[in-house]
Amino acid sequence: MPLIENVTMSAFAEGRKTCRTVILPCGAVEEHGTHLPLGTDALHAVALAGEVARVAGVWVAPPIYYGLCRSGSRHPGTIGIRGSTLQCLVEDILRGFHQQGLLNVLVLSGHAGWTHMAALADACERVLFEFDDLRIAVLSVLDIGAAVWTDLIETPGDSHAGEVETSLMLHLHPECVTGRAPEEYPTFPRHILVRNKQAFWPGGVWGNPAAGNAEKGKLFMERSVKALVEIIEKLENWSEPPESDPA
Ligand SMILES: [Zn+2]
């Protein structure tokens, strides 16, 4: 299936006769060190969704470029939105999918911050309970990471603008990679919220960019696509037992 944004009304009507599955790529406009672009998470999610759609023959919806950012929220270039804004957007888009007959929805986030993912999951749960015939999966690129790149990755705790994301960008958009930021493993205070994030995370990197390369990025992509195609097959065939009345 082509990208939804590129098809006509007639092509969409024809296509949905045979395909009722759609991927919603989500990202963030967020710092990714001095070497990766602010749109890294969306670029990753969009590329992944496109490749999964090509293999599995499903729709890809126009992406949500903005997300909820915390740790990198004060760094130059980060433009975050509130969790409530993200939730309104996601809920309306999911209702739109349902209205258009797209009943199997994979929300795929390139940004993996836990508050961002919690906001997404909460919004998806709300819409799930509105429609009996809707199936929804929500996950971040890091959620499939353990199954995808554990044996390839050299950097323990790599999570942001480090080995994985640098590799992916070197594979997908090498023209957007500028040198390499230094290796960094920030330590934020436990439990206590801080305003001056940059004091605890000056470089905006969590991991080792120098360990990244395009070959790893290609492998990460190929394995991620395989894992996501399996998740889509599972989602399309998903059925759950009806809820019984409470005793
Ligand atoms: Zn990222």
UniProtKB/TrEMBL annotation:
Cofactor: Zn(2+)
Keywords associated with the record: Hydrolase, Metal-binding, Zinc
SUPFAM superfamilies: Creatininase (SSF102215)
Metal-binding recorded as keyword: yes
GO MF assignments: hydrolase activity, acting on carbon-nitrogen (but not peptide) bonds, in linear amides; metal ion binding
InterPro entries the UniProt entry points to: Creatininase-like_sf (IPR024087), Creatininase/forma_Hydrolase (IPR003785)
Pfam families noted in UniProt: Creatininase
Protein's GO biological process: riboflavin biosynthetic process
Gene3D superfamilies named among the record's database cross-references: Creatininase
Family to which the UniProt record says this protein belongs: Belongs to the creatininase superfamily.
UniProt key word Zinc: yes
Name of the molecule in the record: Creatininase
